[in-house]
Amino acid sequence: MVSQTLYASTLPAAALALALASPLAAQLRTTHLFGQPALGSSCFVEHRIQGNPAGHIVGFLWSGPYTNVVALPGTGINGLLRVDPLSFVMLGLQISNGVQPPIMDLNVPGSASVLGGNVICQSFDIGPSFEIELSGNKVSLTVQSGPSAQVLNSMVPIGRGTFQMGSTAPVMAPPHFVQGSEVAGGLVTITQPFWIGRYEVTQGEFQAVMGYNPSIFTGAAYPTWQPRPVENVTWNEAVTYCQNLTAMERAAGRVPHGYEYRLPTEAEWEYCCRAGTTTEFHAGQTLTCTEAVYFADQATNSYCWSYDPKFGGTGVPNAWGLYDMHGNVAEWCVDTSDVQTNALVNYPSNNREDPVTLGGAYRVHRGGSYQSFLDRCRSTSRAAEAQTNGRLYLGFRVVLAPALVMPGMSVIAPGSFNIGSPEPVGVPPHFNQAVSTPVTNVTITRPFWMGEREVTQAEYVALMNSNPSFHKGPAYPNSGSLPVENVTWYDAMAYCAALTAREDALGRVPSGYMYRLPTEAEWEYCCRAGTATEFSFAPNLACSDAVFWMTATTAGCNITQPAPAGSFAPNTFGLYDMHGNVAEWCYDSWDGTTDYFMLPSFNPFRFSGNLRIVRGGSWGDSVEVCRSAYRSGDYPTFQSSNIGFRVVLAPAPGNISTTLGMVPITPGTYQRGSNYGNSEEMPVHQVTLTAHFWMGKHEVTQAQYQAVMGSNPSFFQGSSYPNAPQRPVEQVSWNNARAYCQALTTAEQAAGRVPPGYEYRLPTDAEWEYCCRAGTTTEWHTGTSLTTTQANCDNTLGQTAVVGSYAPNAFGLHDMHGNVYEWCLDNMIYYTPAPETDPFVTGTYLPIRVVRSGNWSNQSIFSRSASRWGAIPATANSGLGFRVVLAPALVP
After folding, report:
1. Are 352 and 189 in contact (CB under 8 A)?
2. pLDDT tens digit string along 522-559?
3. Cα(first)–Cα(last) distance of the chain, in Å?
4. Residue 404, SS3?
5. Among 178-192, 369-383, 731-745, where is mean pLDDT lowest?
6. Is residue 469 a contact partner of residue 457, using CB atoms and an 8 Å limit?
7. Do residues 38 and 145 lie in contact, with contact meaning Cβ atoms separated by under 8 Å?
8. Residue 218 pLDDT > 50
9. Where are the alpha helices (H) located in 666-783, listed in sequence order?
10. HEC string of 717-746?
């Protein structure tokens, strides 16, 4: 997201009054503020419209104690003006592109005169009708204290922006000798402002915070050592310095909420080094000895003869006022290289926002040093070193930036994999279980972080002030590094809740995320790490690979207790001990018998059952129990010295409430329409649905409608109609069906059971027919005919039937033919012969909504898969109901 130029403007009071008179529109519009306004800091505000339609003109209103803003490097911000007499500040207009919600910056001056001032913001948009619509909410916050004056002087504020990360010069060609890992990929966007140190951290600064000085170039031989950059410092020491500095400055009230002192990411470092340039150095295509501290230029055989690092600021600053980004000392970054070696991973070709790689023992450093040849000092040059190594050419600088997640977490990208084992059940050497079959393809749609290691006793004690472990005390030296065990599922959940609270207070929990136990799908995805074998290392597991009791050949591994977390090599995701050591609690419930076939196809999570899933095997288990697919379960109160846990930082788990009876639907292509029906069904044409969604197994019942809406409009209700609550609700209009969906979405979102970007709604016309056909091409999903033993039609019963009274189709959906007509979301128009992808019809001239399925009184011919009718949204009768989908949000 690139900062936009802001324009001062006025907003007529009459327009505001007009906007406030439109409550329905306001409900669909919301204002979201990211970051707390703080002195000398920046936050930004977003305007969301349901469905994010393109073409709307969007603006942002602020009321606050200031009249201008601070321009930051990398932004196009011009300033703000107060709008009288409304006492609003208006950030100028943007046009919504229909892809990303419009965003604008707010930058607070560093003047103490605005401290404690109240900031109120509200967004608005101007749609096709040219009426101004305010958002349905205002955001009110108080300006906090920002960084200290010392920080503002020694650190440089950096604005958001986009740049080309990496080099476009030829690989290994002089004079630049570009490495393969530096080759430019896609564009990189820095989405949040931050500060970076004007100079590298000095020995004096390090000494003041840490109480010691690891540097080589110090002491009596270097009488002016304090302003020299600290060196010979490990990555771990640099991180500790940042943590201590954060604690000191936060205690003094000088760290904005959600920020911390830390090492820069590789992307932040290169963005700041380039300072808007695209050349190999920020000064151009080369550097001279007067511009930076380096040893020699190997391409020209010219030498600067630098033998030690110099005082900060010896060279010339770049365009953003930063010194020594080339040479002097190389600078640690927060990122890791490859998790098992010091190899640097090439940049991907896709565009990225705020990229960072966490997890692994080798950390990236940048900028080159006084010992380096010139090519190693370029803006794009990258190197890596073990994080425990100190080198006399290695130092660092700090950023005051949005907090990253807690150390020790590996970021896990979304992806698909096959959950379960393909091997025969009960056959040696792996003795696969029936509950680990059949193999099912699962997609994890949301990024998350997974703990690199199992939670240790030391970590557990530090947070919970207790240690339930069996393997502790004098008999077990260094037991703090052993995984905590003998914990119940409830103990593990309590730890996660406490960890979430602590990290959220430090600003290190992304919005919508929490620390929790992994779902078993997340666990197996991380354990497999891209493999399809029984173990992530190979088809079999050796005693040198993990901590377990016995191999498949009955050879013992001489194991009598768990090992320190991380004692063996990690898998390719950088995760340790996914096989053995201690078995690990997962979030899911389990009944002990259900296999994978019942899981939804993406972000699966099971709510039913009294047991809790346990994965990974332990030090006391045979090798087959340690396989990637092996599943077991215990009661949540069970304790064992074999069971511990690890945490994930992830969205709240869950898909849908099982009480709603939803069926997962996989995307696909089918032939919509019929050549044997009415003109509304012609011509037959190809339709492709690209999104996963769920559809109600049954039509919405009277009981479900009553529970959500507090009323029941149905004709077939009461004691005269047996089991009426389980009959479909009818006499419900399209408008009322929509209101039910909106209320259900609100309730399920509050329970954390609605995936991001999804909502409960009526199915589109295309979704409905796809689900009704369930892979068939005949006139009914039952074949070439439909009988009254297969559906409630032809007025045989003279009334509705209890939902599910008839056999389902191949997708597991009941009553797709007959019982009650079902509302769809779309407006009614004629088909065209062209193939369609995710078709959805809205905004047509006549407000006629599609009705599908036939009802109890109709002849079966009217309930064919392709049959469709239209009705005005206010229509309601005893033959008209609906079912819901949980699907990507749409605006009808």
Report:
1. yes
2. 999 999 999 999 999 878 888 888 888 876 665 678 88
3. 28
4. coil
5. 178-192
6. yes
7. yes
8. yes
9. 702-709, 734-750, 765-773
10. CCCCCCCHHHCECCCCCHHHHHHHHHHHHH
